[in-house]
Amino acid sequence: MRSLSRNHAPKCSLPCCTTQVGYHKGYVKKDGSPTWKWKTFCEVHRTVLRFEVDEWLLSKGCENRSGYLGWICRDPLNTSLTIDHHDGDKLNTSEANLKVLCANCHQKKTKAFGDNKKRYSYTNRMFSDLFEEV
Question: Is 4 domain-assigned?
């Protein structure tokens, strides 16, 4: 059985955390190649310290209030905030690449800029040491 090596895991998306994240259960595509999806936050920030993530999101609010995406955010309460990787690469967790958007703006941005078409283009970057025998 082969599993993913943690050497290539991205860092937690919370700017103050440098812990590597895990991945959701992988699967094998029809062509036989393995694929997976990295998690956004490390296990500690997904469970025990989830309040830190929520506080960080609320402190930033939807960054589209200024209308930089081409429309003005219509959710003044910021009820459902998400993290958008501006360049579409979930492995790039630099603070400059992370944008906090409400769910509506994030969905509109994904459709308007075609992020859903390139969504997992980064998942199959194959390195010789990406998988390890267990």
Answer: no
